[in-house]
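Field log, afternoon session.

UNIT: design team B
ACTIVITY: writing a sequence onto a fixed backbone
BACKBONE:
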């Protein structure tokens, strides 16, 4: 990767491993949900942290490969709440997604991410939520949006960094 902006001011990031179908639903609702709705992973995040989703497959029950980074956004606040979907009560957080982000195949970034530097790097994806270092957040943000990750904090009373006027994210159709 060519020169990166100063990444020392970028907030911490997280990589959530989620099917593309579930990512699309989360983006449409402006929420994050990881580990099949468990609270622990969400509790590790802080307002202003970046969340990047990696989707190995289109749907949870199918094995149609996607193998791409499919969404990026910032955790909007420190509130974690439990949704009620009948028999399913997942924990969630609000996220300000970059709606101008495009899907980026992992093959485009494999040689530049610290995340993918080790042999057998994919084993860590089984954890479902992985911390990202600041340079990788910058590289992913740049690849997905064409711009450097803003370093200003977000949270209650602070305007989000997403560009809601940009329209829907550029992504392949799910169906």
């Amino acid at each position: 990767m060519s020169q990166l902006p100063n990444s020392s001011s970028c907030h911490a990031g997280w990589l959530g491993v989620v099917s593309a179908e579930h990512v699309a639903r989360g983006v449409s609702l402006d929420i994050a949900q990881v580990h099949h709705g468990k609270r622990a992973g969400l509790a590790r995040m802080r307002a202003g942290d970046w969340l990047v989703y990696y989707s190995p497959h289109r749907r949870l029950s199918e094995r149609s490969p996607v193998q791409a980074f499919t969404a990026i956004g910032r955790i909007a606040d420190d509130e974690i709440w439990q949704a009620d979907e009948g028999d399913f009560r997942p924990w969630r957080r609000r996220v300000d997604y970059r709606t101008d982000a495009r899907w980026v195949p992992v093959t485009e970034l494999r040689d530049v991410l610290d995340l993918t530097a080790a042999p057998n790097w994919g084993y860590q994806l089984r954890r479902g939520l992985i911390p990202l270092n600041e340079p990788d957040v910058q590289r992913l943000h740049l690849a997905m949006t064409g711009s450097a990750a803003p370093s200003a904090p977000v949270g209650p009373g602070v305007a989000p960094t997403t560009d809601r006027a940009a329209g829907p994210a550029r992504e392949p159709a799910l169906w």
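LOG NOTE: The helical segments are 20-29, 40-44, 106-109, 134-145.
NEXT ACTIVITY: expression trials, pending approval
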